[in-house]
Amino acid sequence: MNARAPEAAGGDLAALQARIGHDFADGSLLVRALTHVSALPASQAQRRSDSYQRLEFLGDRVLGLAVSAMIYEAFPAAEEGELSRRLADLVRKETCADVARDWGVGAAVRLGEGEAQTGGAQKSAILGDICESILGAIFLDAGYDKVDTVVRRFFAAKMLNPGRPLRDPKTALQEWAQARGLPPPVYRQSGRSGPDHAPLFVMEVIVNTFEPVLAEGTSKRLAEQACAQKFLAREGVVEDEND
Fold this sequence. Notes:
There is one protein chain. The chain is mostly helical. The chain folds into two domains: 11-160, Ribonuclease iii, N-terminal Endonuclease Domain, Chain A (Orthogonal Bundle), CATH 1.10.1520; 169-234, Double Stranded RNA Binding Domain, CATH 3.30.160.20. The protein has eleven helices and three strands, in the order ααααααααααβββα. The chain starts with 10 loop residues before the first helix and ends in a 9-residue tail after the last helix.
């Protein structure tokens, strides 16, 4: 199985290091961080140690620590729940994949023929893994402080512009109503169907001066969350998840 990576060494890797902001003392770490398991021979002994998998494991943990410290400093009034939601948004695969795209790693990813032909170099799952593996490689090459610098450079803007809502819909709706001087939303059950082991609840949310909204869920809690989401989407506060 042949690895596919346009110029996996030399100029392309030098340019990649410049974009990341770290010049590797041990260039083999970067090559390994860019190597998908599909690019390796079938030998099981090599498949794990020579691909990015172990570096991804390490990078995931280092990223979590760096991001946790960053958001802890940036939001001194935030409670634990909000900090946890911000952390989850920043370390998820989609965010890491976006950072990998910012780095332009696609041209340097080492893939097997089959994975390359199916567009593996642009898959978010692979790019997210490689972002983490590169951070793990930087940690081994230069230590935590360098990883922290890279993380703050590329994740700070995403921290300030979250990729998804950081509050659950009911909390968001309550805060939205409070900001407009309205009473808290009221939820009430409007119907129920289905057998006892698989019920379907219909809940209604009422916000003063606004038309009520109905939504369904397999529990009252889920139906209430669906109501709040539907209300916020109708009022243009959030995007409709069904679009």
